Model the fold of this input.
Amino acid sequence: MAHPILIDASGAVGKAYGATNTPHMFVVGKDGKLAYKGAIDNSPDGERGSPQGGTLVEYVSAALDDIAAGRPVHTPETKAYGCSVKYAD
Done:
């Protein structure tokens, strides 16, 4: 994989970051700080041809590109969409 992922079976990390939906994407910068949180892109229906606003914006890819280039993340937060997260008690 090009980027590490976290498997959070207990939900502890999801709760700490405030994950509300699946998917709810989080990008942590090289400094260990949260650089982006929200939707993977602006196409909640999953259709690449019908994103909100008419043009597909891949928020996670853009955040990773900004970090790799040493720039501040242009869009650090968006509203996540998808099914709600069900945490174990």
Remarks:
- The domain at 12-84 is CATH 3.40.30.10 (Glutaredoxin).
- Helices lie at 12-17, 59-68.
- The chain has one domain: 12-84.
